[in-house]
Amino acid sequence: MSGSTLGTLFTVTTFGESHGPAIGSVIDGCPPGMLLSEADIQPDLDRRKPGTSRHVTQRREEDKVEILSGVYEGKTTGTPIALLIRNEDQRSKDYAKIANSFRPGHADYTYLKKYGIRDPRGGGRSSARLTAPAVAAGAVAKKWLKEKYGVVVRGYLSQIGPNKIEFKNWEDVEAEGNPFFAPDLARVPELETYMDKLRKSGDSCGARINVVASGVPVGWGEPLYDRLDADIAKVMMGINAVKGVEIGAGFHSIEQMGTEHGDEMTPEGFLSNNAGGILGGISTGQDILVSIAIKPTSSIRLPRKTIDVEGNATTIETHGRHDPCVGIRATPIGEAFLSLVLMDHALRHRALTLAGATVR
Amino acid sequence: MSGSTLGTLFTVTTFGESHGPAIGSVIDGCPPGMLLSEADIQPDLDRRKPGTSRHVTQRREEDKVEILSGVYEGKTTGTPIALLIRNEDQRSKDYAKIANSFRPGHADYTYLKKYGIRDPRGGGRSSARLTAPAVAAGAVAKKWLKEKYGVVVRGYLSQIGPNKIEFKNWEDVEAEGNPFFAPDLARVPELETYMDKLRKSGDSCGARINVVASGVPVGWGEPLYDRLDADIAKVMMGINAVKGVEIGAGFHSIEQMGTEHGDEMTPEGFLSNNAGGILGGISTGQDILVSIAIKPTSSIRLPRKTIDVEGNATTIETHGRHDPCVGIRATPIGEAFLSLVLMDHALRHRALTLAGATVR
Amino acid sequence: MSGSTLGTLFTVTTFGESHGPAIGSVIDGCPPGMLLSEADIQPDLDRRKPGTSRHVTQRREEDKVEILSGVYEGKTTGTPIALLIRNEDQRSKDYAKIANSFRPGHADYTYLKKYGIRDPRGGGRSSARLTAPAVAAGAVAKKWLKEKYGVVVRGYLSQIGPNKIEFKNWEDVEAEGNPFFAPDLARVPELETYMDKLRKSGDSCGARINVVASGVPVGWGEPLYDRLDADIAKVMMGINAVKGVEIGAGFHSIEQMGTEHGDEMTPEGFLSNNAGGILGGISTGQDILVSIAIKPTSSIRLPRKTIDVEGNATTIETHGRHDPCVGIRATPIGEAFLSLVLMDHALRHRALTLAGATVR
Amino acid sequence: MSGSTLGTLFTVTTFGESHGPAIGSVIDGCPPGMLLSEADIQPDLDRRKPGTSRHVTQRREEDKVEILSGVYEGKTTGTPIALLIRNEDQRSKDYAKIANSFRPGHADYTYLKKYGIRDPRGGGRSSARLTAPAVAAGAVAKKWLKEKYGVVVRGYLSQIGPNKIEFKNWEDVEAEGNPFFAPDLARVPELETYMDKLRKSGDSCGARINVVASGVPVGWGEPLYDRLDADIAKVMMGINAVKGVEIGAGFHSIEQMGTEHGDEMTPEGFLSNNAGGILGGISTGQDILVSIAIKPTSSIRLPRKTIDVEGNATTIETHGRHDPCVGIRATPIGEAFLSLVLMDHALRHRALTLAGATVR
């Protein structure tokens, strides 16, 4: 238990359930003196929020964030920053039908078995809605990383179902009329057609998200175990529906030769980035490259074989409001978690270097 | 800094460098009353140790482990168990040549930049040799998991370079004359030919290791952030040379439909295991399926472009003794880290259930 | 930084400032299945809240707690329990006068020097008001300890200024017309006279609080460093204004002989309790006896020599609303922190024993 | 369980039992680049070691420390520093007589009840001998604090049994022919007479140790819970036999008025130090003043009432080799633990200030 806090020096503790009164997070360890207001946080929440297109859940949540503490006269004070988001559009009755059986591929089953009690409303604690407080906290980390180091953390959808999307440019990712964070605006119509067909079919599909952090200085990461890549893998695999994490060349490195994989160095810098910006668990100064696999949504309309809470065979069809592909909204989530890890490691590394500096 | 401890209730702290006086680990949190001696630990160290075939480094290390504490009259006492391994075969002079430049793909560069000082002998702290103390600690976790829960943790080499190896049976993995932990003895001659050619070429290759834990009860894992899959991803990505981690269907789940991926349930159990035994970050009771990608060794004989510590362009050829594929010895390492995570979560979950039990 | 979380398995993270929008806490690790509502928490908040008598600050705060998460259909779910208390009666202008100089004995100075920024309103984060969220969390721990183990945690005021108060009985402590948590109702009139005189004088005084936990089973505490007495000392010394902590005989043990101090044992139990219920950092099964010293309030009306933020000599008189003796409201605070430590150690110990049990 | 690690950024994990093969510690988080050798550590071990006078246990232990890792070419590398001390003079047979009953005031009872198994040889893990690895680690922290900040951590014996010793000067504390760390050499003959009489009587007595840290900058400590005073209280109460901890005026502050206790400030500095150098959990820049109460040794020759492991009434006399007053050797132990806390907080604070600095 007590697994709801992330980080060592920059810690984030989240709370809440999909259909409870509120969700939120407490950031402890944000350095003092940074200008901060709700306006710095709301944009990322808006990028993640439901109901923004026909391709995502139609649940209506404004996800308005309120800063409860840690800011005085517009600046962070170094004390805990509490962020509160009230839940608004709850249709708990939607879940009456499924409250007594388990959705294949969903945490319904494991939560009930683990805790002996379960909040079936929208998946309770296991809902992807709980990524919102992390996105809010991530926006604080993102701002600090940018202001202090010029680090920019960005992501995009690189594949949805069978559709691979080559990276074209960052502008397209955030462009009007691109509900997918796809890195090539020209591909959007085709993706919309695919998603419309999928939605009508009552099935769901998976996706791949790539997240890139530029400007990270060399030296972040605390081997042997709190390596930068290890902590990135932890938070990324911890995102709802994620089943795989790659850094740099990832699984492709299995078939590479050493002469191909090892990034050669010149006085002008590295000649490639198979390492994904991390060697020995420590940042190299190159872009940090992370890619994650997101499984298809488990809440689908098509009937599936399952059991009820008494263990009897039954079938289940999940109606109500669900994302046919949770990957569509996952880009800001991936950015947020990568930002949280980088901020924590920035502080950990600074403690070491500064401390070491004057002794040397 | 202080990133050399793993775990919450069952913690492992390792120390040492490749060419220092000794390496070792301190296990804190092992329950009392378990029979334990060096004989329980040495076999996994022997499976990992160098010099066991022509396909791995020829460094001669007996890797004899000594239990320094935590055991009285043959039983664990519940106090810290310190495990010591003396380094024996150190040829530090081998590193004189490369001490002033960086191996592409190696932690040489990042360690020097981070710490401002570096132990070039065999990679110092960043050496794969430092997996030995973790393997020793993992053997203790493995024994406890087996005795208390009947959990069995096993791994195998599923791919080396371009050669994919289908799983045939567990007997083959540990069979005489199988230096690769390959799950199909019939494939060994072909793999040996491949490795001999590779070694002579002076290049290196990558590999894929699969690790499976059978018998894990439903309920292990502490959402939201200390999820079982998240902690597995952290330790696996933290193993030297690992660039990717998958649970269950992993990256394959991107192209699966929800109707295909979600494991249907019947009174007799699940009908498939795309989840890899984990839903919502909590074990389902099915086998835990983990797969990792290992990059090709960075220390190779072929010349590579690089820079020296002053930043000048140069080339480097790494002679001395190195594994042409670190994946060959990675199977017991993957088993050890998975065992450490499972043991920690077993204890964390028991605290919760027991605690909750009588209140309910 | 990030020092606002207590505990290992039962963690409490608090947030807020004296005059911000709200204060609160997030409990992570509460076992599932316990009946819980605001009615279980409010009574301890009411015992601590200001304005309950003329002897404490006249600030009017209802301190109404709202449970935001972690409870479903009246029962804890095992997920984080967020507790919110809105601030109501803020007279920030009271602090304009003192915003630019430091109160002798107050955290004004150290907070500004540490963080480079300070919220002067009511002491900001350093205010004793921040004990309220801990008292709320402590009420949850208290309930669980009582229901599951029959552990009862109670405290009383044993000295205020020069007035020592012998323990008479627990009824008196909570009796009507006893604003001091004094363990002898007959002493109350004399204490009121003393406090009235003190208040009029514009000065302040110190106090001693004793806290007792009955029913704690033998075995709680995790040596060597997370000993039960060590963790109790940490949280108690961490309470605002506390300058000393004793367990059992405490400082009196300096002048005891071994033959006097060591509690002899018989088949019927211990013959004394100089140990205060803890030996070797582990509970003995006897009452846990804790005593703390509380310094006099630093915010007083009488003029004191000090410096302003520019470092110039000045004098300061603190008007506004303050407790002439913070010890008067400290009893429920001491109970809460002791309860938090006991609950965390209950869970930690259970993980060990259960885990060990079947191996032995 | 897993309570054998101290610290957040500068962590120390100890292992070993009084009569096992070896004891030791692993320091993780020591900054790189500091000159370090056994010669920096041995002196504090020698100050603590047994057999140095007739007033302490006659067990003969050289307590020679070996650095196993973390140092390369005489300098710390930033990687874990493992310190090993082999046990030499073990007379386990001395404990045969008492192996089946419990010493009043000793951890015998609680260890057996907690762990269900116990190492009776010299108290096993609960032995004061286990302070040696912490003293070794403390010497590393002490050196860094002195070199980097000019912080000096020193202690002395301020009372033994009924004999209070006024502080005269630091030279006397370390003077030849002063086996007590008494701060007034003139008092030593009287103390020796007292101790000789006590030893012959077969009884034991308590003591008080004062520890002072000079040169600590303003700003160390991480409120609300990882306050500097809170963490000091934790480690000090965690030292064997300690029953009370005071900071500054300590329990004396109960009877002080606010006008007396609050340390007035002038441009030249504070006019007094009742705070003991800590306000709001943060260092003020004044000396850190800590005082601890040490109970009388529980292992005494005089017969005491107790029970055996079956719970039957019996009496016990403890022969073998024991300190009649553990306080005599406690001064270097108190210094070590205070140094460990200060070092950890130095690093934590630097992470914050540096991080904040450029944002402000």
From TrEMBL, chains A, B, C, D:
The molecular function GO annotations come to: chorismate synthase activity; FMN binding
**GO CC list:** cytosol
Cofactor needs? FMNH2
Residues that, per the record, bind FMN:
R125, S126, S127, N240, A241, G280, K295, P296, T297, S298, S299, R321
What keywords were assigned to this record?
A: Amino-acid biosynthesis, Aromatic amino acid biosynthesis, FAD, Flavoprotein, FMN, Lyase, NADP
Q: Which residues bind NADP(+)?
A: R48, R54
This chain's protein is named Chorismate synthase
Which pathway does this chain act in? Answer: Metabolic intermediate biosynthesis; chorismate biosynthesis; chorismate from D-erythrose 4-phosphate and phosphoenolpyruvate: step 7/7
Keyword Flavoprotein on entry:
yes
GO term, biological process aspect, one: aromatic amino acid family biosynthetic process
Region described as Disordered? 42-62
**Encoding gene per record:** aroC
Give a single Pfam family match. Chorismate_synt
- EC id: 4.2.3.5
Q: EC top class, in one word? A: lyase
This enzyme catalyses:
5-O-(1-carboxyvinyl)-3-phosphoshikimate = chorismate + phosphate
The family database entries (CDD domains) matched by this protein are listed as: Chorismate_synthase
Keyword Nucleus, does the record have it? no
- What does this protein's UniProt record list under function? This reaction introduces a second double bond into the aromatic ring system.
Organism taxonomic ancestry: Bacteria, Pseudomonadati, Pseudomonadota, Betaproteobacteria, Nitrosomonadales
Cofactor note from UniProt? Reduced FMN (FMNH(2)).
Q: Which family does it belong to?
A: Belongs to the chorismate synthase family.
Q: How does it assemble?
A: Homotetramer.
